[in-house]
Amino acid sequence: MKILGIESSCDDTSISIIDDKKNIIANDIISQNQIHKNYKGIVPELAARNHVLFIDKILTNILKKNNFKFTDIDLISATVGPGLIGGLLVGLTFAKTLSQVNRIPFVGVNHLEGHALTARLTNSVEYPFLLLLVSGGHSNFYFISEVNKYEFLGGTLDDALGEAFDKVGNILGLSFPGGPQLEIMAKKGNYKNINLPKPLINEKNLDMSFSGLKTAVINIRKKLIENDSICGADIAASFQKSVADILCRKISLAIDVSLKKYDYFENVVVSGGVAANNYLRTKLKKTVELKNKTIFFPPPKLCTDNGAMIAWAGFELYKKGVTTNLNIQAKPRWPLEKIGDRI
Ligand code: KG4
Ligand code: ZN
User: Residue 186 sits in which domain range?
Assistant: First the structure.
């Protein structure tokens, strides 16, 4: 089978073709970073307009490059939500139209589900598994029993982690999105020079909070502004260290919680844009292995938004007998654990 996946929930327009043997035949992504960086964040209206500009060109290009016609595609899947409504409408309407005109089955995918299942496309991760999803819009723990069966265990009470990385990056003078550059900047700094808080780290639950950490960075930056570059790198290093300590403590707790609730599980998956961060990957790996569990991360390029993860989730659902009626509407809010209204 060949599966077409379409992702347009935020500022990346991506279309991918994968097959049922887990080969990623194409995964083209047009990033809008250059457009949104002038505004230090994503402007939804501009994002939607640019999805319209690029989406058909990406498709034409990947079909041509791989010498495919529509008759070669067996399944179409697209992100239904959650995300920015303008972008969702573009990708979903495009997918529904392709499905109807070419009489190809359609599966609507939850964006978080795409991130959740990517590691099963790239690695042999068996169900069930514990998931830490850390992206620009979400920072949550879930227990994934099987496809379409997701339980929310806990997560951030305020900012998502990617959002905090981007805002701290902005305070440190980095261009949007700050996350990847903050990781590079942190390598030149020493976390011991700056003391930042670790909100909720000692709470015996899976609540997290990153907004106070961001405010602490603003306050420290104000005090140290004269010293400039060295202190910026120290702040970045200290921010990353605080985040790593929080995530490691909470993932360890999430393993304990999951062991109490479920008979057995072996695997832990960390995915979403922030999971591309190598420093965090190393720290989380060590922590999870000390708890005798196996950790998986998608490759960095598939941690951030992409069409391949949507194609794969669509394929897993299709194998379970799920197809989606073409009258499904885009869902700007759609918690992963409330997936039941997909069909
Ligand atoms: O998953 P994603 O592409 O989009 C959402 O679903 O939100 O995640 C984007 C987020 C951005 O906030 C970006 O700064 C962050 O992931 N990110 C990183 C890194 N690469 C991407 N954060 C920290 N370190 C990185 N290396
Ligand atoms: Zn995402």
Answer: 127-300
Q: What is the mean pLDDT of the chain?
A: 95
| Residue keyed to tokens 């009470």 | 157
Ligand 1 close to Cβ of residue 298 (< 6 A)? no
Instruction: Report d(CA 243, CA 210) in Å as an integer.
Output: 8
111 CA → ligand 1 middle, Å: 14
Task: Identify the band that residue 342 occupies on the pLDDT scale cut at 50, 70 and 90.
Answer: low
Q: What is the pLDDT of residues 185-195, one digit of tens each?
A: 999 999 999 99
Encoded amino acid at 118, one letter? T
Neighbouring residues of the ion ligand 2, judged by CB less than 5 Å: 135, 305
Give the span between the Cα atoms of 97 and 342, in whole angstroms: 18
β-sheet bridge partners, residue 5: 16, 77
What six digits make up the tokens of 200? 């909720």
Instruction: Give domain status of residue 343, yes or no.
Output: no
CATH number for the domain that contains residue 247: 3.30.420.40
Q: What is the pLDDT of residues 309-331, one digit of tens each?
A: 999 999 999 999 999 999 999 99
What total number of domains does the chain contain? 2
**Same domain flag for 165 and 183:** yes
Q: Do both 144 and 290 map to the same domain? A: yes
Residue 184 banded pLDDT, cuts 50, 70, 90: very high
On whether residue 122 sits in a domain, the answer given is no
> 94 and 15 in one domain?
yes
What does the pLDDT average to over 46-52? 97
> How would residue 341 be classed by pLDDT, with cut points 50, 70 and 90?
low
* pTM of the model as a whole: 0.96
Protein residue whose Cα sits closest to atom 20 of ligand 1: 180
Q: What is the DSSP letter of 112?
A: H
Ligand 1 near 166 CB (within 6 A):
yes
Buried b (16+ CB within 10 A) or exposed e, 169-189: bbbbebebbbbbbbbebbeeb
Is the same domain home to 51 and 132? no
Residues 290 and 151 in one domain: yes
Q: Using a 6 Å cutoff on CB, does residue 304 contact ligand 1?
A: yes
